[in-house]
Prior knowledge:
Elements: E1 2-11, H1 14-20, H2 24-45, E2 54-59, E3 62-68, H3 73-103, E4 117-129, E5 145-149, E6 152-156, H4 158-167, E7 175-177, H5 179-190, E8 199-209, E9 212-223
Parallel strand pairs: 4-5, 4-7
Antiparallel strand pairs: 1-3, 1-4, 2-3, 5-6, 7-9, 8-9
Amino acid sequence: xxxxxxxxxxxxxxxxxxxxxxxxxxxxxxxxxxxxxxxxxxxxxxxxxxxxxxxxxxxxxxxxxxxxxxxxxxxxxxxxxxxxxxxxxxxxxxxxxxxxxxxxxxxxxxxxxxxxxxxxxxxxxxxxxxxxxxxxxxxxxxxxxxxxxxxxxxxxxxxxxxxxxxxxxxxxxxxxxxxxxxxxxxxxxxxxxxxxxxxxxxxxxxxxxxxxxxxxxxxxxxxx
Length: 224
């Protein structure tokens, strides 16, 4: 059994952007390119506080990253990495989108806050399997699997689905996280790790979520 942290980044209001800005493919390209570069830049600048996130896959305007946890402190480093990557994305995309809007005479007077991406962080425990593996009922009690085909990983299971559902509740100024990621954040905040010490956590209960009858309890990280 292995444990992974999954991180998602996606463009805010990308549908509206595509309607308003004719050269929107350039902005999406920048989004992908900045994620690629920031994964390296963050760990180069903060080698002891961050950790490299690998690309799982991209889905339209969303990029999914992952890290296999070797130690529980890895989760704190993943949170730090995700926060730094999101900040870098917001800065780069804000400049690009505003320039494109000015070029095409799009009114952006209402966009005073520079937040261009949404993000979610959650963990899963999963059994790694492959196309030639023997299916062992006892081995797969976690309900989640990491399937490796032609060197490419895919994550499948209820915890993966739950992560996608909570990521749909993320906001531009709030990173939605799972329970154990919240606990790791609190430990990092107590230790005074920057910039996490500038963030706070909030909880919302009874949030409508597919498959959860009484609603879900969601946790958010947001800068103070």
